């Protein structure tokens, strides 16, 4: 068991901080989300659930069919965008002291936050709930963490 943990540890980012391990974890989760977006609309439709049904007719329609504007193409596009962000974050996990890579990773969280906020608050294609809360919390928390820790990692 100890040798298995040691071997696993050899794949982890080499620095002592938690931020790089978190970036690795988020990258792996994001790759999983990207793969899912190519094979199923369910996860992407949870994030982009569409407007909140107000009328009785909208509520009835929502029970039969999703109000989500997600199509096969938009799900795959979202999956590709997520994969690109995951790759940048993965590079940052292993090169956390490199200012350019750190900034690029930080930008991925800032852009994600702006994207999700505008889809929710401006365009109405997303609504607050389980599907949107996760990405918004990760983008907000990780972005704030990276800003606060800049001087600890970047020389």
In short:
It is built from 7 helices and no strands.
Report on this model:
By secondary structure, the protein is mainly alpha-helical. It has one domain (19-153). The chain is built from 7 helices and no strands. Helix 5 (72-94) runs antiparallel to helix 6 and helix 6 (99-121) runs antiparallel to helix 7 (130-153). The model has no long low-confidence stretch (mean pLDDT 89). It is found in: Endoplasmic reticulum membrane. It comes from Acrodontium crateriforme. The chain crosses the membrane at residues 22-41, 104-123.
The shape is: elongated
Helix percentage: over 70%
User: Radius of gyration from the CA trace?
Assistant: 18 Å
Distance between the termini: 37 Å
Order of helix and strand elements from N to C terminus: HHHHHHH
Number of strands: 0
Strand count, sense and barrel status of the largest sheet are: none
The chain-level mean pLDDT equals 89
Low-pLDDT ranges: none
Category from helices, strands and their pairing? mainly alpha
| Helical run tally | 7
Instruction: Work out the strand percent.
Output: under 5%
How many independent structural domains? 1
Strand and helix layout:
Elements: H1 2-9, H2 18-39, H3 42-47, H4 56-64, H5 72-94, H6 99-121, H7 130-153
Membrane topology: Multi-pass membrane protein
Protein name: Ergosterol 28
Keywords: Endoplasmic reticulum, Lipid biosynthesis, Lipid metabolism, Membrane, Steroid biosynthesis, Steroid metabolism, Sterol biosynthesis, Sterol metabolism, Transmembrane, Transmembrane helix
